[in-house]
Structures are given as structure tokens and as C-alpha cells.
Amino acid sequence: MTDLSQIVKAYDVRGVVPDQWDETLAELFGAAFAQVTGAAAIVTGHDMRPSSPGLSRAFARGAAARGTNVTEIGLCSTDQLYYASGALDLPGAMFTASHNPAQYNGIKMCRAGAAPVGQDTGLAEIRALVEQWRDGDGPQPADRPGTITQRDVLGDYADHLRGLVDLTGIRPLKVVVDAGNGMGGHTVPTVFEGLPIELDALYFELDGTFPNHEANPLDPKNITDLQARVRETGADIGLAFDGDADRCFVVDGDGEPVSPSAITALVAARELAKYPGGTVIHNCITSWSVPEVVKENGGTPVRTRVGHSFIKGEMARTGAIFGGEHSAHYYFRDFWNADTGMLAALHVLAALGGQDGPLSQLVAQYDRYAASGEINSTVDDQTGRLAAVRAAYEGREGTELDELDGLTITTADWWFNLRPSNTEPLLRLNVEARDRETVERVRDEVLGIVRG
């Protein structure tokens, strides 16, 4: 019997199907979700993985048996499910394992208005109910079961996004999109319909076995096909989406990756033009450029921990207009504080098409520092290695230390963050400095302590 602590993570459910979870467990999760939210109705959606339709329908059966009406929107991206949760004002459940390999699947859950469900906001209660019912007699069925109906919201989702960014006056653009056989292949054609864009589609066939490459653009090897196609065709820009299409990565017309921090700064400047004086959230690993650009554009930057529950929580608390992460998650007040890579992509296309220069020239003003990117080290003792690094830097003249998320050391010329993974025996290092040589020096010094 599966130990549910292995599949119920901090923000979602995720594990190997059928080894760790299956449709029987999915049905119990549906019943528990219905009980914990107390909702009369919920909405569900799923990605293109082979196991997704069956798991999603089992979840719907479990919720309906408890008297909850279920609206199934079928194949969708995660941000399309968030749209449905927001527009219909219903709790939602999305069946996806994002960028994980094909044998995985999972559930991302939210309350009405796309408010996140995590360990402290309902997920622990859901897990406890599932364990209780699995080990006992199961949930009691309602006197009157709920209904299961279908609804197509793809067109409404696309209309909503296009209503938030004016692309009518842009110059024609040649855009390569690598959907990685994920849900971008489902959403991009409808969202881009009618725009002055020549779309070059890479791997748009929905295939949850990922025959071409992993749908994880954060790994550089998974964007090499996109880079090559942009260079071969002379495209203006390349976009890559992850498996559930909630994250978007950008490459410029030379095929060079544009850092998510630069995209965060660019979109922040645009949102501040729309909402003067607004607050922008950024996590502790985004570039110095982000708070600088926010301040230069009259906004207030707020720094937070890594992770969507922290970003969304701070957005709700501060009334922020936008939030961005180093991992290419972008959050918008106009989208119920939820993350949508598609809306970020539309902002970048609008900015690029609204002027005559190449993307590399446009983003240069937002990409001001040298960075290491995220470097992972496998360690047996995360706490001990972190303490050793802290001891090495604590008290050095001109250094500041904070532990908002892992360990951050800051000086006038560089900073680094070292934090443990929540799910693996890894320490993740990010370094930024005013020049490449300093990045390499600090990187090597820290890794020398971490790796012994």
C-alpha cells in the first residue's frame, strides 16, 4: 500500500502510475476534495498523458458520489484550468505531472478563484481523509449524487488572455513555438488565432510519452531544437512551454535564451505602465535587475520565498499586480493571481512587435548582470553543508546574510543563494555578480564547501 507522504507533496499530488497511485486512489481524492472544499460544484481538467483521462474521470466520480456537481473541461493547460476556476468561481483540479517523465501523473488543486491548495490550505486534510477512507470503509455516498457534465472553455480562455494584452498594432512576427508534445500544442493555435503572427509549430502533437524531448525547458538540452529552428528560419523569437504549458521560456532571434528574470522585469514594466505605483512580487533568486526595474518604473518590489504558494500568498496580501520567478512562472492579478506562461508570452510578443529592433536589443535593458544559473549538488547532509557555508561567510566584512529561503549572502558586487530541495537530497546554488569572472570565483568557492 502506497505511503501517501511519498505522493502528496507541498503543493500537489504527484507520483508514478500505477505503482504509487491509480484510479482507485484518484476517486478517493475526488471525494476528499469535495468534502474539504465543501463546494456544491467543482471543475476538472487534464493534460495529454495516457493515464490522465482515466484518473480525471475517477476523481469526478468520487466528487459526484459525495453530492458535488462536476464540470469537466477535458484536455487543457494548467492555466486554462485556473481560468475556468476563476471565471466560473469554482474549486478546480488539474491532472498533470507538469514536466515529469511519462510514467508520472499528479493533481494540482485550487479553491474557487484559482486560490492555491497546499499543505497548509487543505492538502494535509485531503491526504488524511484519503488515508482514513482507504484503510476503512470508504466515504459515505450522498443521498443525491452530483452530476458530471462537459464544457469547452478553450475559446473563452483565449479571448480572456487576448483581452489583457493589446496586440492589434504590432508588426508581423515570425514565431517558433516548441510545445514539447505538451498542452501548448492544444492552446497556442487558439490563443494566437487572428494575431499578426506567422507560427512555426514544433512538436504540437499531443503525446504524453514525450517522443522528442522532455517537456522541461528549464533543462538547456530540451530547447536545442527550438534554438536551431529559430536560427535556421530567421524567426524573430522562440517560445518553449513545459508539459502542462503553465511555464514559458523565451529565446531571442539569435537563438539565445532570455533569462526568466529579464522577462519578469520586462513584463513588470508593462504592467506598471497599466497600473502605476503597483506592487511586484519576485522570489529571492530573481536577478537584481527585477527590483531595480520595478523601482525605476514607479513600483514597489517585494521579495519572497520560491514557490507558487508563497508568491500567490504575497500577491493576495499586498494586492500586487504581477509576480515572477526564476523558473519562468509568471503571476498576474488580472488572472486571479495565478501563473500563466501564455499571458507572459503575449506581453513579450506585444513588446517585441511594438518596436522595430530585435528581441536581444529589447531585453538588454532588463538583463544587467552575469549569473550562474541553478547548479544542483547531491549531498547526504543538507543541513550540515548549509551550516558549513554559513560559517564560511558569516561575519565577513561587507556581507549581509538572510535566511528567507535557504541561505542568501549579499555583497555590493555579488550575491548567492543556497537552498535545499524540498523533494530530493540536493542543494541548489544560484550566483549573480557584476561580471562573469566574479560569478565563477564565487561559484567555485561555494561549491568547494558544499561538495567538500
TrEMBL record:
Its EC number is 5.4.2.2. Transmembrane segments: none annotated. GO terms for molecular function: phosphoglucomutase activity. It is an enzyme of class 5 (isomerase). Residues 374-447 form the Alpha-D-phosphohexomutase C-terminal domain. It holds the Pfam family PGM_PMM_IV. InterPro entries: A-D-PHexomutase_a/b/a-I, A-D-PHexomutase_a/b/a-I/II/III, A-D-PHexomutase_a/b/a-II, A-D-PHexomutase_a/b/a-III, A-D-PHexomutase_C, A-D-PHexomutase_C_sf, Alpha-D-phosphohexomutase_SF. Keywords: Isomerase, Magnesium, Metal-binding, Phosphoprotein. Residues 6-132, 156-255, 263-369 form the Alpha-D-phosphohexomutase alpha/beta/alpha domain. It comes from the Bacteria. Signal peptide: none annotated. Its cofactor is Mg(2+). Belongs to the phosphohexose mutase family. This is Phosphomannomutase/phosphoglucomutase. It comes from Streptomyces rimosus subsp. rimosus.
